[in-house]
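Re-run requested by the PI after the first attempt was lost when the workstation crashed. Everything re-entered from the original request form. Ligand of interest: nicotinamide-adenine-dinucleotide.
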Amino acid sequence: VSRIIPVETFDLVIFGGTGDLARRKILPALFKRFCSGQVPDGSKLIGAARSDLTTQAYRALVAEALLEFVGDIASDAETVRAFCEHVHYVSVDARGETGWSALAAELSPETVRAFYFSVGPGVYSDLARGLERHGLVGPETRIVVEKPFGHDLETAQALNRELAQHFDESQIYRIDHYLGKETVQNLMAVRFGNMLFEPLWNAQYIDHIQITVAETVGVAGRGDYYEKSGAMRDMVQNHLMQLLCLIAMEPPAQFEPDAVRDEKLKVIRALDAVQPHHIVRGQYTAADGAAAYREDVDNPRSKTESFVALKCQVNNWRWAGTPFYLRTGKRLRARDSEITVVFKDTPHSIFGPEAGRHRNELNIQLQPNEGITLNVTIKEPGPGGMRLVDVPLDMSFAEALGPKVQGSSDAYERLIMDVIRGNQTLFMRDDEVEAAWAWTDPIIHGWEARGDVPKPYDAFAHGPDDADLMMRREGREWRGLD
Ligand code: NAD
């Protein structure tokens, strides 16, 4: 079972403790860490929201959420009860004056103190101000800020300025749960822990790299938010950009927060402006029993994209000439997040044209199952002459590592514990977030200026045909979504 790194006693306040994210992700993650012995005695998990609840009522809400979302491990009532002893509730209006002194009274003076901002982005600034004004910020205080971090460069800068008035950058944890995924960190282990890959990890040997983050869900229920956001803001600016950074960055001198984040920042700053003909926007239409995007958001004229595919270029010595293709969308054929590194053809085929075209590919699967596969070319067994075939060298963790994988933690667990330990490596720095917006803003502004209308695509299919065409024109094709 996975190695447990001990943590000190801590207080974690979840602002928005009654909300969807708290119930679905944060509380289950804390419960799992509790089961692994990482919530030391004396630690408090304090839900804070506007609702007028007693601690007892909140504990009941927490127990219900655990049953709903991690019922398999929360079936033991005694363990849930023991966990709930750490749980408390304070009614606080983050934008008003009520509840702050009750919250202050719950907090221990000496321990690490983390405030998780699991409230809407409109509340972030007031909450940051409120925490300081009511004397709740000390040197061991950290804040966790959820996405979306800004709506564009200007609003992200304003939010960074606001947070900087109350907190040091070393206290601010901008969370992107993609960075907490086991395989994403494994990507760094594969790149920088092996001699095999890094010498080939450049434009000389890599034909192109593609990143797909596909979902089957639509936007029903989140329409108000999504309609103002779209796939570019909701997924590309943060998750896909972060994955691209980890794939493309130079080796940092140490695996330490600023060393890693400096290298990621350089990647974003080296990104070319995307040409309009290298980007395809899409919007799903009704199919297979699913409503159209426009129905889901109740706006028959919506021009918001639920799909983006684009080609971009990291303009530096390592990557000049190797394109990166990013694709993400909702209501696609499968829930599938993967990165594929496609290596170049061998310079000369000694086996002649009948051997066919074979290329090495490194595939990093993030969802639904995590794993890494390297395709290598070998001789097809049998008497048929020198025929070649691609076979996977499979590094899927479940098989190789067995019980260790079951013991491994999910992204939120890992990231929350990193906050408690004070490790910012997997969190985005202010300048990173701003650089990512500086790259996406002109693309979005271009669409707005041109009145661009996304291309329709059938729900539960592969996205707009134009996205496939964009690849085919360049003699390439998308991987995944089969
Ligand atoms: P939600 O609407 O379900 O919950 C919001 C919570 O904030 C509620 O507990 C509410 O009581 C509380 N709240 C609102 N105003 C408050 C105030 N003035 N003072 C104190 N508490 C207040 O929202 P959610 O889906 O849980 O999302 C929370 C944050 O996390 C948002 O910023 C969202 O963008 C982000 N996020 C959510 C998800 C998700 O899957 N739900 C995923 C990624 C990011």
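Saved to the shared folder this time. DSSP finds 15 helices and 15 strands in the chain.
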